[in-house]
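I have been asked to look over a protein record a colleague put together. Alongside the sequence sits a line of tokens, each denoting a local backbone shape. Please read both lines and tell me whether the tokens look consistent with the sequence. Take the sequence as given and treat only the tokens as open to question. I have pasted the whole thing underneath without changing anything:
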Amino acid sequence: MHPMFKRYMYLVVLILIISGKTALAGNPYKIDPDLVDHYFEAGQEVEFSINFQDERVIKDKNPWIAFALCGVAYVTGITGMHRAYLGAGPLIFFAYFCTGGGFAILQTVDAVLLLIAAIEDKTSSPYAYNKKLIMW
């Protein structure tokens, strides 16, 4: 038998022995069902919701940044970086990346629309968080 194999087997056996001892040691924690029921009865019900379409988040999307991401040497545009910035979601980013920005057609139209929105001093909110592949 090769000496390295022997060392490996000793290590495996040692790990098994150590893990077996910790598994057999048992759980030192005990759960008291009456105490759990008491805490549930004494607790308050809380309603909780998250609104991901918050207005202040949408207004923070700058059309100049989105245009720059769309038009910089067409590299970031065809990969869909501007759509990731606008919050379109991972599937849109993946679609742009796989098709090269919709064969550069979608990316070009997106760049024109974002430039117009930036020049007219509009916010990019019509395009922010748009989950459709074609954002216009």
Summary: The helical segments are 3-24, 33-42, 55-59, 63-71, 75-78, 81-85, 90-103, 105-119.
